[in-house]
Amino acid sequence: xxxxxxxxxxxxxxxxxxxxxxxxxxxxxGCKSVKCGCETTNCGxxxxxxxxxxxxxxxxxxxxxxxxxxxxxxxVEEEAAELGRFLAAEGAEQCGFCSxxxxxxxxxxxxxxxxPDLDEIKEYLAGNLCRCTGYMSxxxxxxxxxxxxxxxQCMEVPA
Amino acid sequence: xxxxxxxxxxxxxxGTNTESGRCDLTKLxxxxxxxPKVDSGSLxxxxxxxxxxxxxxxxxxxxxxxxxxxxxxIRGIDTEKAKAVPGIECVFTYKDCPDKRFTLAGQTYPExxxxxxxxxxxxxxxxxxxxxxxxxxSEEAVKKALKLIKVKYEVxxxxxxxxxxxxxxxxxxxEDNWRSLAPVGADNKRNLCAHQESGSGDIEAxxxxxxxxxxxxxxxxxxxxxxxxxxxxYTYADTYGRLNVVSSTQVPFHVRRILANALDIPxxxxxxxKPRIGGGFGAKQTAVCEVYPAFVTWMTGKPAKIIYTRxxxxxxxxxxHEMEMHVRVGADKEGHIRGIxxxxxxxxxxxxxxxPTTVGLSGHKSIPLYGQAEAFRFTYDxxxxxVMSAGAYRGYGATQGIFAVESAVNELxxxxxxxxxxxxxMNMVREGQIMPAYYGERANSCALDRCLARAKExxxxxxxxxxxxxxNGKVRGVGVAMAMQGSGxxxxxxxxxxxxxxxxxxxxxxxxxTDMGTGCDTILTQMAAECLDCEMSDIVVHGxxxxxxxxxxxxxxxxxxxxxxxxxVKTCESLRKKICERGAEYLGCSPxxxxxxxxxxxxxxxxxxxxxxxxxxxxxxxxxxxxxxxGAFSSPTSPPPFMAAIAEVEIDKETGEVExxxxxxxxxxxxxVNPALARIQTEGGIAQGIGMSLFEDVVYSEKxxxxxxxxxQYKIPTRLDVGTIRVEFESSYEPTGPFxxxxxxxxVINTPSPAIANAIQNxxxxxxxxxxxxxxxxxxxxxxxxxx
Amino acid sequence: MITIGSYVKPKTLEEAYExxxxxxxxxxxxxxxxxxxxxxxxxxxxxxGLGLDQIEETDNVIRIGAMCTLRQLExxxxxxxxxxxxxxxxxxxxxxxxxxxxxxxxxxxxGRYGFSDVLTALLSLDTFVELYxxxxxxxxxxxxxxxxxxxxxxxxxRKSKRMFRYDSVRRTKTxxxxxxxxxxxxxxxxxxxxxxxxxxxxxxxxxxxxxxEIPLDASExxxxxxxxxxASEFTYGTNMRxxxxxxxxxxxxxxxxxxxxxLEEKSxxxxxxx
Lengths: 159, 788, 274
What we know:
The complex is a heterotrimer. The termini of chain A are far apart. In chain A, helix 2 crosses helix 3 (about 100-110) and helix 2 (about 75-90) crosses helix 5. Chain A is an alpha+beta fold. Chain A is built from five helices and five strands. By secondary structure, chain C is an alpha+beta fold. In chain C, about 35% of the residues lie in helices and about 30% in strands. Chain C contains ten helices and twelve strands. Chain C has a five-stranded antiparallel beta sheet with strand order 4-5-8-6-7. In chain C, strands 9-10-11-12 form a four-stranded antiparallel beta sheet, sandwiched between helices. A three-stranded parallel beta sheet of chain C has the order 1-3-2, covered by helices on one side. In chain C, helix 9 packs across helix 10. Classes of the chains: A alpha+beta, B alpha+beta, C alpha+beta. Chains A and B meet through helix 2, helix 3 and helix 5 of A and helix 2 and helix 18 of B.
């Protein structure tokens, strides 16, 4: 069946099987940042946004995004690179395989929560597994990123 | 410049340790600094750098039909209907595969692991063992074909209890062409994969004369590495008719041999390429999946790809060996540990990958922690059973042995009425001591005493030991453990490195060590930049290609920093010499009269100089010798890193739930090459260790079906489960290591299980000797204690 | 994994209902669990175009559309005002935010899963389900029925002055529960009534109703006795996550804590009103 949706700001048309999942479709459309880690909704590697909400693309029928907006890491490149620099400074990407899904959910969190505290951050990101880092470095990176963001905003406030 | 000064400069430049002493860490520009990984930009940008991102779209999709039985003989197999499915290229059964056994273990030849595998075998040995290979143009077609293969099994009785495997009438490997290449004490007619005894002193006499003897049995479960990227590889035939394999592997050079053995073809026909890897932790030190697409490509000439599902990665992979360890620790009444006796029974499962070697570490990397013992004995058996084959997982047997020995020492402290840290301070191995249970090696670098002292400070041991009742039904306890590991396999592991000077003077650093996310491409570049007095950006490094990269045993056994790092240092030394020679030649003076400062070769005679850029460019024109150097390193010793850690846990006295509160860990990995990356290694290893301690378990049904077949059932810790992990370094200086460095990769997983067990013990009095330490076990033991 | 012949997103409830009458049709919710089965479904019916994704509050009820996500439930202000943090507590441990952005209340309730936190929580409240064909029936009635071909349109929680507590024990923080317990109390037909819902036993949640007058100053022993009595009226089983014996013990502990917490709040409010 044919579906039309907006992928990273561009209208796309795809011919999909009724049981095709979004993960495979967006990878097929070149968004290779989206990874599959478990197939059972537990790992968060396949996180993309559907209409701005973090979703597990392994469990979304592609048919369902017909008429909707899908965003992958490729669609938020600049923002991701900015956060990515903080992750890299801590070494918090390690193998990097879970980084795209993780970054997508961090950016979703930044949009949804205002100044989340440590517990809120941990809870929001609980669905993003990482086997390399033990998570601490990711938290350090996020906190530094948030501080930098805040300083940036403060700077923009006219004196 | 005085000779002494000159030596100091050389030392700084090369990171080697001349007789006059160590390299001056304060002068290091690159090494011992936290720099981001050289590949971090593309990793965080989600670039297409992993195996499946790179696979051509016309690859045949390969899948494996798996056995529903733990032990059976295939009596009939009908593939006609499957072959008839549109899009199916081929279906292979055991009848199509060479009858020549090999091992999937990524180890140096001759491998200690027995040659006990076929690509497909008539006998299937665990639920999930391979029965048939199907390849086709689409995933749907292949899945459909898999369902249409009809197999007639003669179901046999399986051996599922590893305690009953030895000399069981049911044999897992009765076949006559089973082979063991190394003298590891294996006997397939006894279900025995390895056996050995070692020791020093008269252990029985020593234990008999001890005031206290702790005599306990501990059990550690199988654990999955659970790296986020599952096993995967794609294969294609190239212009020269050779088999090219792109694989997510830690051991590309071993994979070359394994595939040549499996397919029964010359090694010259195989090329293995390693792109970025989404984690390995030892899992990918076994060639779990490569043989299937390789066989398809070899037979059909077509490109092929296999991507393991998470389920396959959990039911037919290479998890940690389950072990049962019987420990006896003897001490006098002051607390001097006088003897340690360990018997380990290890479960290698259906095949022997890493069976004969992992078990050795359970004793050799636990007993030497106690330097004063007068005698030790270490005996082991490794047995075959009808569960998934075990393999290499970070820690590689040391993790299991350290749980047992460290727990026994904690029990000894309790018997003695002593603080377990004080008992350790009294007995731990110290710098300069000979370690009889560690092949008689001397601990040339050991800051274990400082590690423990610092860990105690970090956690506030004096205030918190043994426990604090929080007044809300919860009690917090602290517990301690120490650990060691090795740095490469002594006398075996080999790292080779080549560096060439290119136009404009940039360097190509070629390594065969495999970065699996751990950052070895980065830290080896750091070392080279330090040695060559240049910026890291002057050096390019890339993934491994067995056709082009120099030989390296691979990234395992905590070898890369130490072994390949030393090869980098050696190679840089000879390259510097060559650059000087070439510069002198271009300057028209003698090599003795020049020095190289990283940017230029300077004539000390007349002050003229020639830049590295110019040298690089001139080398490309009318040159009779390339400007490059190569070197290799293999170490006669394996200097252990050391670590001390203290866990603080909170236990719900009614439910038995264990909550991680704090984890203070201090590591002595010698000089820390990249503190950020070393810290993440440590934090990550501890988190995995916490998973092993509290949650992770591979559970089988009575018939041998693996229930832990998804991340829904095999629970690795989330960020809500690990508490706070704090890491510091107390560095010794390893005289044989590059810049004084030792390894970091594996030791970091070894402390959580004994430290957490001890924290539970100190909080509740309950001693758990069987992992994982679930809330239910804690509760049941508390209840038992209450009733007594 | 599931195989699907065709995907349909009906424009009307009637169309959805008609389509669902075929034996091999299935209604999809969030597609979280259904996808993992090996079912061959001819037509999968997506209700997401039918406006069932709203939580509406009226004077008497809170109506949760079947296609509302667990995340909506978690963040629902009106439920929080009425019943406190318990509703959020019953949802926030479920896998992760992404999962809860997708999984639906309808899917959780219709599936009648043993491990369901949502079912355990909703069952303890004064809850009804609205069916396309079967009218509006009590949730406690609905869970006992076998899944049929009707459409679940909404879950309706009748507003009342009741106190609600939810707690669970899990191996990892986002795992399925080893046990899940909800306790609700309020005056029903003039009598103090306690509702106990225990799920993940590992069987699906069941409801127990008791006209108990538990004194505000009940001692720990008394509360333990009540909790033990309530817990003993459920059956328990053993699976990978825990034994029957341990589960019953956990139910006793959690119910005890929930009763105590309610009594504490009650005496607190009473003191304030005094």
